[in-house]
Amino acid sequence: MKLIFLSILVLASLIGYSQAGSSRCPKPNMVWSDCASACEPTCGEQPEICILICLQKCVCIDGYILDANGNCILRSECP
């Protein structure tokens, strides 16, 4: 049972990885990064501990930060 779950998890990760690499960032003020932080800054509390790995994903452009809805907004617009 664990092997089946692990296989599904790996397959889902590979599908997500291939789709993410071929698509553009769907939201404004985002750019693609081949080595983004796992702990991107957000409005609100930041994690005390963050793993140091590179993730391929869309990130906010300089001066912008993720809000609770996953949109990149100016830091000054955080509630």
UniProtKB/TrEMBL annotation:
The keyword Transmembrane does not apply. Keywords: Disulfide bond, Protease inhibitor, Signal. One of its GO terms (molecular function) is peptidase inhibitor activity. InterPro entries: Ser_inhib-like_sf, SerProtInhib-TIL_Domain, TIL_dom. Residues 1-20 form the signal peptide. CDD domains: TIL (cd19941). Residues 27-78 form the TIL domain. PANTHER family: ACCESSORY GLAND PROTEIN ACP62F-RELATED (PTHR23259:SF70), RIDDLE (PTHR23259). This is TIL domain-containing protein. It comes from Chironomus riparius.
